[in-house]
Amino acid sequence: MVYYQKMTPEGYQEIKDEIARLKKDRPRRIKILQEARSMGDLSENSEYTTAKMELGHLQSRLRYLDKQLRYSEIIQKDESGTIDLGSNVKLLFEGDDDAEEYRIVGRMEADLAKGKISFDSPLGQALMKQKAGATVTVQAPAGSYDVKIIAVN
Protein backbone atom coordinates (compact mmCIF):
# COMPACT_ATOMS: atom_id res chain seq x y z
CA MET A 1 0.00 0.00 0.00
CA VAL A 2 1.37 3.38 -1.02
CA TYR A 3 0.83 6.33 1.32
CA TYR A 4 0.32 9.60 -0.50
CA GLN A 5 1.33 12.87 1.16
CA LYS A 6 -1.40 15.51 0.86
CA MET A 7 -0.24 18.98 -0.17
CA THR A 8 -1.47 22.17 -1.74
CA PRO A 9 -0.59 23.11 -5.33
CA GLU A 10 1.63 25.87 -3.92
CA GLY A 11 3.53 23.38 -1.75
CA TYR A 12 4.03 21.11 -4.76
CA GLN A 13 5.41 24.04 -6.75
CA GLU A 14 7.78 25.03 -3.92
CA ILE A 15 9.29 21.53 -4.00
CA LYS A 16 9.65 21.68 -7.78
CA ASP A 17 11.37 25.06 -7.48
CA GLU A 18 13.80 23.74 -4.85
CA ILE A 19 14.64 20.74 -7.07
CA ALA A 20 15.36 23.11 -9.96
CA ARG A 21 17.66 25.24 -7.76
CA LEU A 22 19.54 22.18 -6.50
CA LYS A 23 19.96 20.74 -10.01
CA LYS A 24 21.28 24.09 -11.19
CA ASP A 25 23.83 24.09 -8.33
CA ARG A 26 24.96 20.48 -8.89
CA PRO A 27 27.49 21.19 -11.72
CA ARG A 28 29.20 23.82 -9.57
CA ARG A 29 29.54 21.38 -6.69
CA ILE A 30 30.87 18.66 -9.00
CA LYS A 31 33.47 21.09 -10.32
CA ILE A 32 34.53 21.96 -6.73
CA LEU A 33 34.89 18.23 -5.99
CA GLN A 34 36.99 17.68 -9.13
CA GLU A 35 39.26 20.60 -8.27
CA ALA A 36 39.70 19.33 -4.71
CA ARG A 37 40.48 15.83 -6.02
CA SER A 38 43.26 17.21 -8.21
CA MET A 39 45.06 18.67 -5.17
CA GLY A 40 46.76 15.42 -4.33
CA ASP A 41 46.56 12.97 -1.42
CA LEU A 42 42.85 12.39 -0.78
CA SER A 43 43.37 10.97 2.72
CA GLU A 44 44.60 14.33 4.04
CA ASN A 45 42.63 16.61 1.74
CA SER A 46 39.95 18.37 3.80
CA GLU A 47 38.68 20.32 0.76
CA TYR A 48 37.98 17.03 -1.01
CA THR A 49 36.23 15.55 2.03
CA THR A 50 34.08 18.66 2.45
CA ALA A 51 33.20 18.89 -1.25
CA LYS A 52 32.32 15.19 -1.35
CA MET A 53 30.12 15.53 1.71
CA GLU A 54 28.33 18.62 0.35
CA LEU A 55 27.67 16.93 -2.99
CA GLY A 56 26.34 13.89 -1.13
CA HIS A 57 23.96 16.08 0.88
CA LEU A 58 22.75 17.74 -2.32
CA GLN A 59 22.14 14.36 -3.99
CA SER A 60 20.36 13.07 -0.89
CA ARG A 61 18.10 16.14 -0.75
CA LEU A 62 17.23 15.73 -4.43
CA ARG A 63 16.23 12.08 -3.87
CA TYR A 64 14.12 13.06 -0.85
CA LEU A 65 12.32 15.86 -2.71
CA ASP A 66 11.76 13.64 -5.73
CA LYS A 67 10.02 11.08 -3.51
CA GLN A 68 7.90 13.85 -1.97
CA LEU A 69 6.65 14.77 -5.44
CA ARG A 70 6.21 11.20 -6.57
CA TYR A 71 4.11 10.27 -3.54
CA SER A 72 2.13 13.47 -3.22
CA GLU A 73 -1.57 14.01 -3.65
CA ILE A 74 -2.37 17.56 -4.65
CA ILE A 75 -5.53 18.74 -2.94
CA GLN A 76 -7.50 21.57 -4.48
CA LYS A 77 -9.10 24.10 -2.13
CA ASP A 78 -12.68 23.30 -1.12
CA GLU A 79 -14.94 26.16 -2.21
CA SER A 80 -17.88 25.14 0.02
CA GLY A 81 -16.90 27.49 2.85
CA THR A 82 -15.67 24.69 5.08
CA ILE A 83 -12.05 24.53 6.19
CA ASP A 84 -9.90 22.17 4.15
CA LEU A 85 -6.38 21.99 2.77
CA GLY A 86 -5.52 25.33 1.20
CA SER A 87 -8.02 27.34 3.27
CA ASN A 88 -7.04 30.63 4.85
CA VAL A 89 -8.58 31.02 8.28
CA LYS A 90 -8.89 33.87 10.75
CA LEU A 91 -9.00 32.59 14.33
CA LEU A 92 -9.58 34.01 17.77
CA PHE A 93 -7.87 31.98 20.48
CA GLU A 94 -9.40 31.64 23.93
CA GLY A 95 -8.19 34.51 26.12
CA ASP A 96 -6.82 36.58 23.20
CA ASP A 97 -8.25 39.82 21.88
CA ASP A 98 -6.46 39.78 18.52
CA ALA A 99 -7.42 37.44 15.69
CA GLU A 100 -4.65 35.52 13.91
CA GLU A 101 -4.55 34.31 10.32
CA TYR A 102 -3.29 30.92 9.16
CA ARG A 103 -3.25 28.79 6.04
CA ILE A 104 -4.08 25.08 6.30
CA VAL A 105 -1.42 23.09 4.43
CA GLY A 106 0.05 19.60 4.08
CA ARG A 107 2.47 18.18 6.62
CA MET A 108 5.59 18.95 4.55
CA GLU A 109 4.56 22.58 3.99
CA ALA A 110 3.84 23.49 7.62
CA ASP A 111 5.77 26.50 8.92
CA LEU A 112 4.24 28.25 11.92
CA ALA A 113 6.54 31.27 11.51
CA LYS A 114 4.95 31.83 8.08
CA GLY A 115 1.41 31.21 9.35
CA LYS A 116 1.12 27.75 7.78
CA ILE A 117 -0.32 24.98 9.95
CA SER A 118 -0.60 21.33 9.03
CA PHE A 119 -4.06 19.83 8.55
CA ASP A 120 -3.05 16.96 10.83
CA SER A 121 -1.69 19.07 13.71
CA PRO A 122 -3.98 19.24 16.76
CA LEU A 123 -5.22 22.69 15.70
CA GLY A 124 -5.53 21.63 12.05
CA GLN A 125 -7.52 18.52 12.96
CA ALA A 126 -9.93 20.52 15.10
CA LEU A 127 -10.48 23.06 12.30
CA MET A 128 -10.97 20.66 9.39
CA LYS A 129 -14.48 20.67 7.87
CA GLN A 130 -15.64 23.49 10.18
CA LYS A 131 -17.22 26.77 9.05
CA ALA A 132 -16.86 30.40 10.06
CA GLY A 133 -18.64 31.16 13.32
CA ALA A 134 -17.92 27.79 14.91
CA THR A 135 -15.97 27.39 18.12
CA VAL A 136 -13.80 24.27 18.29
CA THR A 137 -11.93 22.64 21.14
CA VAL A 138 -8.33 21.75 20.32
CA GLN A 139 -6.90 18.70 22.10
CA ALA A 140 -3.18 19.53 22.30
CA PRO A 141 -0.47 17.66 24.25
CA ALA A 142 -0.23 20.57 26.73
CA GLY A 143 -4.01 20.63 27.29
CA SER A 144 -7.18 21.63 25.52
CA TYR A 145 -8.24 25.14 24.50
CA ASP A 146 -11.03 26.74 22.48
CA VAL A 147 -10.68 28.58 19.18
CA LYS A 148 -13.37 30.62 17.45
CA ILE A 149 -13.31 30.61 13.65
CA ILE A 150 -13.84 34.21 12.49
CA ALA A 151 -13.49 33.75 8.71
CA VAL A 152 -12.68 31.12 6.08
CA ASN A 153 -11.46 31.94 2.55
Describe it for me?
This protein has 153 residues and is of the alpha/beta class. The protein has two domains: 5-74, Transcription elongation factor, GreA/GreB, N-terminal domain (Helix Hairpins, Orthogonal Bundle), CATH 1.10.287.180; 88-152, Chitinase A, domain 3 (Roll), CATH 3.10.50.30. It is built from three helices and seven strands; from the N terminus they run βααββββαββ. The strands form two sheets. Strands 5-4-3-7-6 form a five-stranded mixed β-sheet. The protein has a two-stranded parallel ribbon with strand order 1-2. The radius of gyration is 22 Å and the shape is elongated.
Write a concise keyword list for the protein shown above:
Chitinase A, domain 3, 2 domains, alpha/beta, about 150 residues, Helix Hairpins
What secondary-structure arrangement, pairings included, does this model have?
Layout: E1 5-7, H1 9-37, H2 46-70, E2 72-74, E3 88-93, E4 100-105, E5 116-118, H3 122-127, E6 135-140, E7 143-152
Parallel strand pairs: 1-2, 4-5
Antiparallel strand pairs: 3-4, 3-7, 6-7
